[in-house]
Amino acid sequence: MIDNIPDTIRARLDPYNQAFIVPLDDPESHHLVKRKLVYKNYGGGSQDTFTKTGQDALDENPGIRVRHFAMLLRTWNPECPRIPGQPGLFFGCGSLPHWPHASETVFIRITTDAFWRYLGEYEFIKCAPLTVDEFRALPNEAQVSWSSGLAKAKWATEARTRMFLRIQFGREPTLAECTAAPDPKGHISPQQIQAQLSEGKESIGVWAIRCVAYDEELQLEL
């Protein structure tokens, strides 16, 4: 975990701070894989943060289970786990009242050349969003990642539209106005988005993630 993360952010983990005991030895549980191997074996999206077992993989291997994968980056989630079974925090965008799946098969990218580590099966628990001071205290890399991502990512259309209309109208847009507006991608800059996050006009959601199981078979297959 990163040392300069404010304690107030980490405090969200207090109720969930018990690590899951991974049954494999360290060399096995810390084994790194390329994402293309996960994609080859299980299908799904090769670039998305969240994806699930692809239909091709299910057709080829009817006995495998449908998995929901979470492929996490520490540039976006500086307080996410690095060690299998360890709890952490996930930063997200959107207004989900609760997580849509009982658990996610979580991987973390360890190196910039796309090596990933399987961490376990994780439950996502909604917490309070980041405050203004907490967002400002994030490492600059995380602030830039979020501002740039919100400016262009498909999953950020709702938030991006809201922020763009806020600038256009000089007030909070209504839900109807946001729904009717076209996607302003390309018309709002990362700097404008970062300003709204720094001023508290928009916020980053936070989810505590805790390991509830560890699939030894999956890890050994990889």
TrEMBL record:
Name of one Pfam family that matches: DUF6697
Domain of life: Eukaryota
Ranges for domain DUF6697: 33-222
Name the record gives this protein: DUF6697 domain-containing protein
Source species of the chain: Cylindrobasidium torrendii FP15055 ss-10
